[in-house]
Amino acid sequence: MKLKTLEISGFKSFADKTKIEFMSGLTGIVGPNGSGKSNIIEAIRWVLGEQSAKDLRGTKMTDVIFAGSANRKPLNRAEVSITFDNADHYLKSDFSEVKVTRRLFRNGESGYLVNGQDCRLRDILELFMDTGLGRESFSIISQGRVEAIFNSKPEDRRSIIEEVAGVYKYKQNKDKAQKELGNTREYLNRVNDIIAELE
Ligand code: ATP
């Protein structure tokens, strides 16, 4: 799975439709203070289902809609689309390209689409579950978070790295398997007891 494009329109400082195409390798976004770099990251978090206006530096969700500037009127709609190359079907979808869209109107109406089909927030969350790209994942680390990670205890930092590396779900599977093994051992002991009694 690879991030291909991000289209932003009417979201925060991006009044006009802006399309960012991500090439192979590392992409850096540079620009002067206040030019909208963080807004791009917030657009990604928003389209992936972010529900906290506070975490998007607002007080209510409609604050993400372009609020106007010195020479431009406010807009009534914010829309962000993110497209992933899903040729490896890393995302549980039959499509080899997955495009997720979120839109919000100033009157509060909103919606999500996956490849042009209306869907619920729950569908989006399920689509990205266990991919490391979910709402609460560490794939996107904001400025304040970096400091928090540096200052965290080694055990906490280890669990962050494990989650990013996708080890967490295997650890859970291992715990489950060990519990089942324990149960099976107990059943075996019981069967052996019964056999011993019968002999
Ligand atoms: P820095 O380098 O200082 O972190 P940045 O490049 O990350 O800055 P952002 O924080 O992404 O910049 O953008 C801030 C700009 O976005 C501000 O000028 C702010 O007025 C504008 N902005 C935020 N929300 C809206 C909105 N709803 N409508 C219009 N402009 C907005």
UniProtKB/TrEMBL annotation:
ATP binds at residues 32-39. It is found in: Cytoplasm. Homodimer. Belongs to the SMC family. Contains large globular domains required for ATP hydrolysis at each terminus and a third globular domain forming a flexible hinge near the middle of the molecule. These domains are separated by coiled-coil structures. Required for chromosome condensation and partitioning. This is Chromosome partition protein Smc. The chain holds residues 1 to 199 of 1184 of the full protein.
